[in-house]
C-alpha cells in the first residue's frame, strides 16, 4: 500500500545540485566549504581547448558534522563535463581525503562521504586525470584504515571509469534506483562491442545491468534507498555508527574472480543470472 503521507513529505536528493546535496547531509550550521567557487580553482586546460571552465572545477568539498561526528563530504557535479575529473578537481578530492587521514593521526576521527556523479577521467585532461584518480584511490585505502569511507551513487549520471574503482574501494556504498555503477559507460561499450551487444539507448536494459537495484541485489553495493534526502542521510548515519566493516569488499578479489570464471561469454548474461552468480558466501 502506498504511504501517501510519506510521498507528500518526500524530498528528492538527486534534484539538488552538488553543493546542496553535501549541505543536506550535515548538521545545521556546521558546513564549511574548502576551496569554494570564489577561490577560482578551475582547470587551466579547458580554455586552451575552447571549453568554458567552472570556478570549482565541478568538485565541492565541505567539512562539517553529521550527528556531531566530523566528516568531509566530497560532492562531484555531474552537470559539469559529465562529472569528469581532471587535474584540479581530482587534486581537490585527493587533498581532502589526505587531510582527513591527517586528522585521524591527530585523533580527530574524520570520515569521508563521497557523492559520486562522474564518468571518470576527463578526456581533455586524460593523463592528468588518471594520475589524480590514482591518488584518490590511494587516499581512500589509507583513510579507511581509520574511519569508514562512504560512497553514494544517486543520480542518473552514475559512476563509471576510474571512479567506479574508487567506489569499489569505499567501505560502504549506497545506491538509488536512478544510480548506475560500472567500469565502462554504455556508450563506450556500444562503441567497442557494437549495438547488438550493448544498446546504449535501451534505458531499461542499461539499468537492469548497472542500476542501483541490480548492483544491490548482486551484492556490489551495501544499501539500496529511495531518492529521498532523509533516507540517504539516515543510511549514512547508520554506517557512521556501525564503524569499519569487518571485511572490505575490495579485499574479496578471489571470491569475485571465482564467480566471473563461471560466466559463459558465448552468450549475453541476463541480469537475473548475474544476481544468482554473485550469491555465495564471501570469506
Automatic annotation (TrEMBL):
Which InterPro entries has this protein been placed in? AcCoA_carboxyl_beta (IPR034733), ClpP/crotonase-like_dom_sf (IPR029045), COA_CT_N (IPR011762), Malonate_beta (IPR017556)
- Protein's UniProt keywords contain Hydrolase: no
**Keywords attached to this entry:** Metal-binding, Transferase
Report the record's Gene Ontology biological process terms. Answer: carbohydrate metabolic process; fatty acid biosynthetic process; malonyl-CoA biosynthetic process
Q: Per the record's keyword annotation, is Cell membrane included, yes or no?
A: no
Q: Which Pfam families match?
A: Carboxyl_trans
Outline the extent of the CoA carboxyltransferase N-terminal domain.
1-256
**Per its UniProt entry, which superkingdom is the organism in?**
Bacteria
GO MF annotation, one:
acetyl-CoA carboxylase activity
Q: Which NCBIfam families match?
A: malonate_beta (TIGR03133), PRK07189.1 (NF005530)
Could you tell me what this protein is called? Biotin-independent malonate decarboxylase subunit beta
Instruction: Give the source species.
Output: Acinetobacter guerrae
Amino acid at each position: 500500500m502506498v504511504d501517501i503521507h510519506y510521498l507528500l513529505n518526500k524530498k528528492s536528493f538527486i534534484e539538488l545540485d552538488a553543493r546542496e546535496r553535501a549541505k543536506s547531509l550535515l548538521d545545521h550550521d556546521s558546513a564549511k566549504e574548502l576551496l569554494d567557487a570564489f577561490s577560482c580553482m578551475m582547470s587551466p586546460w579547458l580554455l586552451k581547448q575552447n571549453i568554458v571552465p567552472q570556478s570549482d572545477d565541478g568538485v565541492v568539498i565541505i567539512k562539517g558534522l553529521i550527528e556531531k561526528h566530523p566528516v568531509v563530504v566530497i560532492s562531484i557535479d555531474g552537470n559539469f563535463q559529465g562529472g569528469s575529473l581532471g587535474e584540479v578537481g581530482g587534486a581537490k578530492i585527493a587533498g581532502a581525503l589526505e587531510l582527513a587521514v591527517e586528522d585521524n593521526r591527530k585523533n580527530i576521527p574524520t570520515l569521508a562521504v563521497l557523492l559520486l556523479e562522474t564518468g571518470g577521467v576527463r578526456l581533455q585532461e586524460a593523463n592528468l586525470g588518471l594520475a589524480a584518480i590514482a591518488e584518490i584511490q590511494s587516499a581512500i585505502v589509507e583513510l579507511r584504515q581509520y574511519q569508514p569511507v562512504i560512497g553514494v551513487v544517486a543520480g542518473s549520471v552514475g559512476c563509471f571509469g576510474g571512479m567506479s574503482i574508487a567506489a569499489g574501494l569505499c567501505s560502504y556504498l549506497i545506491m538509488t534506483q536512478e544510480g548506475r555503477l560500472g567500469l565502462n559507460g554504455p556508450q563506450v561499450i556500444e562503441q567497442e562491442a557494437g549495438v547488438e551487444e550493448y544498446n546504449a539507448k535501451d534505458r531499461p536494459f542499461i539499468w537492469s545491468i548497472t542500476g542501483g537495484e541490480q548492483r544491490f541485489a548482486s551484492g556490489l553495493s551495501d544499501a539500496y534507498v529511495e531518492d529521498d534526502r532523509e533516507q540517504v542521510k539516515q543510511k549514512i548515519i547508520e554506517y557512521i555508527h556501525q564503524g569499519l566493516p569487518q571485511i572490505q569488499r575490495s579485499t574479496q578479489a578471489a571470491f569475485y574472480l571465482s564467480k566471473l570464471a563461471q560466466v559463459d561469454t558465448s552468450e549475453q548474461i541476463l541480469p537475473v543470472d548475474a544476481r544468482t552468480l554473485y550469491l555465495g558466501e564471501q570469506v
